Amino acid sequence: MKKLFAILIACMALTAAFCSCSKKDDKSGDSSLSSAEKPPRVRTESKISPDDMAKEFADILYSPNGGEKYYALITPEQALKQLEASGELNGKAEHFNSNRSDMLTETSISVSDIRALGELSDIQLYGAEEYFSSKFNAADVQANNGYEYKIQFEFTKANGESETQTRKICVIELEEGGKIIPAEADTLG
Asked: What does the pLDDT read at residue 26?
């Protein structure tokens, strides 16, 4: 019985040692910290015009020829180069263009309003980095600044019926330049 008790205590001590080591290792690597535990952002002066990027995205979102530009706006450069090299970019752009052409045969779509909603929080910027890393398998993505926008579209059918739709996007300034996340800021953290 004493031997069993000694073995049990030894196992518990080993487990505690492994647990304390793994916690130490978790905190030494910045990437394993949750967004809330990461250090505050040092904001830099923006090198992009987020207003212009939001307008450009709004203009091409329902364009029958905007597929290539759409993917250039939403995809980090290293992932975009991989898509081009594999030939996938052309297929994605053609599908986008075909989809928009079909949509525009029955409906005209125009941008009626674009509004800046505010700057992204530090947690949302970390979320933007995680978004690009997971969605595009892009390593070392650094988000310097980010802004949320609301875009309002007017859909007018051939019979004259019209409908207003609103979409939120995030304009993210990466080291390589500006990129768009076609989702609202709340989804980022």
From this structure: 39
pTM: 0.75
Sheet bearing 143-157, strands edge to edge: 107-119, 143-157, 162-174, 177-181
Query: Which residues are registered as beta bridge partners of 108?
Result: 156
Angle at 68 between CA 88 and CA 147, to 5 degrees: 115
> Beta strands 177-181 and 107-119: pairing type?
unpaired
> HSE-up of 57 (CA within 13 Å, CB side)?
29
Decide if 117 contacts 150 (C-beta within 8 A): yes
Q: Which residue, 179, 36, 148, 55, is CA-closest to 110?
A: 55
How would you classify the pairing of strands 107-119 and 162-174? Answer: unpaired
User: Residue 157: enclosing H or E segment and its boundaries?
Assistant: strand 143-157
Instruction: Render 86-154 in DSSP notation, one character per residue.
Output: HTHHHHHHHHHHHHHHHHHTTEEEEEEEEEEEEEPPHHHHHHHHHHHHHHH---S--EEEEEEEEEEEE
* Tens of pLDDT, residues 90-102: 999 999 999 999 9
